[in-house]
C-alpha cells in the first residue's frame, strides 16, 4: 500500500485494522493476530512505516521491543477502504444469510488463530 494509493494487500489492510483496534500492539502480537511469521511482519511493518501509515516507538515495558500506532494517513487509508469492506460483508451476508455469515466469520477466526500440534 503506497501512500496516496487506495489499494492494499490483505495483510497490509489486516495490519492496519489490528493496529487501529489495538494501539500499542507489538510486532510479535501483530504476527500472532495476523497468523504470520515474525519475519514477514517485520517486512510488512517496514513497508507500512515507509508509507507513513504506521509509527513505531519504543515499548515502555520492553527495551528491545517497539509498539505500533496508526498515523493520520493510516487512519485515512482505513477510512478509504471501509466502503469496500462493507460492500464485501454485505454481499457475503446476502449469499450466506446472517447465521451463515456469523458461522463463517467464527470459523475463519478460528483458522486464523489455529496452531498445528
Automatic annotation (TrEMBL):
A Pfam family the protein falls into: MarR_2
Biological process annotations from GO: response to stress
InterPro entries hit by this protein: HTH_MarR-typ (IPR000835), MarR/SlyA-like (IPR039422), WH-like_DNA-bd_sf (IPR036388), WH_DNA-bd_sf (IPR036390)
Gene Ontology molecular function: DNA-binding transcription factor activity
The HTH marR-type domain, residue ranges: 1-116
The protein's name: MarR family winged helix-turn-helix transcriptional regulator
Organism name: Streptomyces sp. R28
Amino acid at each position: 500500500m503506497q501512500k496516496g494509493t487506495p489499494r492494499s494487500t490483505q495483510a497490509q489492510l489486516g495490519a492496519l485494522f489490528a493496529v487501529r483496534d489495538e494501539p500499542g500492539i507489538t510486532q510479535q502480537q501483530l504476527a500472532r493476530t495476523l497468523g504470520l511469521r515474525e519475519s514477514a511482519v517485520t517486512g510488512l511493518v517496514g513497508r507500512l512505516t515507509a508509507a507513513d501509515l504506521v509509527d513505531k516507538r519504543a515499548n515502555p515495558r520492553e527495551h528491545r521491543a517497539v509498539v505500533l500506532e496508526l498515523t493520520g494517513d493510516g487512519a485515512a487509508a482505513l477510512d478509504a477502504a471501509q466502503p469496500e469492506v462493507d460492500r464485501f460483508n454485505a454481499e457475503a451476508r446476502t449469499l450466506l444469510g446472517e447465521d451463515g455469515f456469523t458461522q463463517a466469520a467464527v470459523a475463519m477466526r478460528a483458522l486464523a488463530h489455529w496452531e498445528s500440534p
